[in-house]
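Re: duplicated header lines in exported structure tokens

Our pipeline writes sequence and tokens for each protein into one text file. With two proteins the header for the second block appears twice in some exports. Here is an export where it did not happen, for reference. First protein block:
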Amino acid sequence: MSEMNISLKGPEDALEFVRRVEKYPYTMDLCCGSIVVDAKSILGILYLGFDHVVHLKVHAGECGELRKDLKNFEKSLEKQEIRIFSFLQKCDKLSTTSLQRQK
């Protein structure tokens, strides 16, 4: 699996992003906190909103061409943002595990 952080500025960016990713056969998800949407779904992307960093997960081994294609959407996180993002991911995993135990 390959991962990268991206940022979309508005609906035009979302449309261009979808045009680019739908050319590839990989399954891709966009994650924002506990929300996960299909990266090839314009409605899913619109639901996530704009002007913040979202996490792209590509369910494939090597996707170098895709990375090149998405270079202008890629967003590097500051160290503080990375720590917060990691913390939120851990919280999501803990709450999911807790809910599974309750069942």
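Second protein block, exported in the same file:
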Amino acid sequence: MTKKNVMITLDEEIHRRAKELQLNISGECEKVLRDKVFNKIHQEEETKKCHKCGKSSEEAGELIWLCPDECWCCKDCINREVQKIIIGVVPT
């Protein structure tokens, strides 16, 4: 496997403590990312349903991935949430 050199920014305290514990920062980051990436792909394949109403992509027509929530949402539920926001900010 070919490795790519990348740069990350860490909180100073986390960096200091990781060094004190003699952790391989690159290795630890790679393990966490590998787990997150492969679990997310597996999870998406198994549970691609709207987190609000539970509709599958076949039922909803299209699902949209929401960030930073990290969940799927159908257009109907997004539109309902937008309407709640609009109604909430309209002066009475």
